[in-house]
Design a protein that fits this description.
Layout: H1 11-14, E1 21-26, H2 41-49, E2 55-56, E3 61-62, E4 68-70, H3 81-97, E5 101-106, H4 111-122, E6 127-131, H5 151-158, E7 161-166, H6 171-179, E8 184-186, H7 193-201, E9 206-212, H8 234-247, E10 249-256, H9 265-283
Parallel strand pairs: 1-4, 1-5, 5-10, 6-7, 6-9, 7-8, 9-10
Antiparallel strand pairs: 2-3
Helix pairs in contact: 2-9, 3-4, 4-5, 8-9
Length: about 290
Amino acid sequence: MVPHNFLALPPEQSSLEAAKVVLIPVPYDSTTSFRSGSRDGPQAIITASSGLEDYDFELELDVSEIGVHTTGAIEPHMAGPSPMTERTKDVVAAYLEMGKTVGLLGGEHSITIGSVRAHVEAYPSLSVLYLDAHADLRDEYMGTPFGHASAARRVHESCPIALAGLRSLCQEEHDFIRNNNIPVWYWDPNSDRDALDGVLDTLSDTVYVSVDLDVLDPALMPAVGTPEPGGMDWHQLVSLLGKVAESRRIVGFDVCELAPADGPPACSYTAAKLVYKLVAYACGNR
């Protein structure tokens, strides 16, 4: 029987004791404002990952040898997004205390708030690279300050943040970026690379990477809750993450907003491949 965990790994590579990396599914999308369905993202990523090659020829690394443990899913807290943030933080913190590198499989982008708060306690000099088509810097949206549209705002309150891939934001967010000097790389496929290097220069030595899959071009990734025209292609995104890994230590990450019913199966496979790459960038060179 094929194991139902990330990469379909056998026990000697997927047990908690053997693994350097812990992946936590968070099937939560209760604050979604356009298209729901990202609650189905974690299982779709895990299922698709069984088709990936364990060996990464670009990094000359067998990712399975890192050891990846897939936990049970965090149960959604139906009292609301604030207690869900605390629940996520507590679960992430428990694995960080074991010395594991933790990655979250979303789920909507609000799950990032609790994960970052746990990581800041473990890594006080943490900074966050936030990859998203949207700024997510509203102080509150649809009655909550802990929804997907406020995730970057809450992260900014915990540690430094740099945003990359933006191509949609409201006036409130535009003003907040300007008034708080937040490093932002607005997506333009024709811009020179110095602008991106400037964003990377704002990151500390320890970095948490948060990826909303809508940072990718919807021609490649239509299976997201809020698709936005334009965006990165696969190689641009992976190249950026590789640059971060070359000069910084990636200590945690999440991949959010896969809504598998809104796109072909290739979207789930692409999301799984991105998680695989982040595992390799976080732990492959230590």
